[in-house]
Amino acid sequence: MNSKQTAAFTEEHDIAVPYMQRLRDYYLALGYGNPYRWAQYADVPFKSLGITLDQARVGLITTAAPFKEGAGDQGAGAAYNAKAKFYKVYSQSTSDLDFLGISHLGYDRKYSSAEDINSFFPLKALEAAAQQGRIKAVAARFYGTPTNRSQVTTIEQDCVDILALLAEDEVDLAILTAN
Amino acid sequence: MPTVILGSAKDIVEHCGVPRFVFTDFPLGNSAGKPHDLESQAATLELAFSLLEKAPAARTTVQSPQRWSASSDWKLDFQNVDRIPETEIKKRRAEFDKIKAIGQKVRDQTLSNHPEN
User: Fold this and answer.
1) How many domains does chain A contain in total?
2) Which of A103, B6, B45, B70 could share a disulfide with A78, CB 3.0–4.6 Å?
3) pLDDT tens across A112-141, in order?
């Protein structure tokens, strides 16, 4: 391959960031043994839509957190804040959103400010889609799920709780934003 | 329930295995689109809709064509031990121990307020 051909390539490090390797190496360097084992399934469920999107009521599931009194700085630019963590599924009205933050999450603080909620919680874009008729409606509530690293709790408690809320609100499909 | 995930950690999500995944190659924290950019956010959501309508099977990923910036140098930094000095590593160990303790306390308080758990 000549230099003219490779000149058209992107940078060699321009690949999907290898987070699993980075985190494994990072925590080993910090002195923690027993590297985390991420969830890994052989079989993955798949449910077809069954209806057209313009017939669908859409639910939003997020890992972002509502404001917690007494937990300190939780807004844009906040340092990692474990006090803002939550451990139970919650739901709030989609028509009365006050605050959502990601200070309890390990996002990329060097390059992300978290100052625009719409970059990590697409309720506004979803509402626009409903107004345009792309979807039928946004669910009456959105749903928050903890990220407490207990895989058993996530699967056996949190997912069950979320599904119950989705059923209560007659949600047809769900969009999850991971942060 | 049909679902789609918006995320920016491709390896983690695909390792798990999910029905549908819109991978946005941005720094973590922007999986729904660029901040203060309605077009970026609308386009990201439209990819999710498209997957819901057209994905043929589980583990379907579509990568958003959006670029975070002209340079991809931002990808070199996140928790990259090759770029963190030893003194900083020690400091972070101490900080993380404190964070873990706080998180455990919050968890214990949450569970004690919900005796059904």
Assistant:
1) 1
2) A103
3) 999 999 999 999 999 999 999 999 999 999
